[in-house]
Amino acid sequence: VVVNGEMIEYYDVSGCYILRPWAFSIWDILK
């Protein structure tokens, strides 16, 4: 599990990755 810049938070409870709203534009560029 790699989490950079607090853009993605991993919740053990839900077992899924939560991408913070402000990071969507950055994530789109990175991928």
TrEMBL record:
Q: Which GO terms describe its molecular function?
A: ATP binding; proline-tRNA ligase activity
One GO BP annotation of this record: prolyl-tRNA aminoacylation
Protein origin, superkingdom: Eukaryota
Output the InterPro entries linked to this UniProt entry.
Answer: aa-tRNA-synth_II/BPL/LPL, Pro-tRNA-ligase_IIa_arc-type
Pull one GO CC term from this UniProt entry: cytoplasm
Annotated protein name in UniProt: Uncharacterized protein
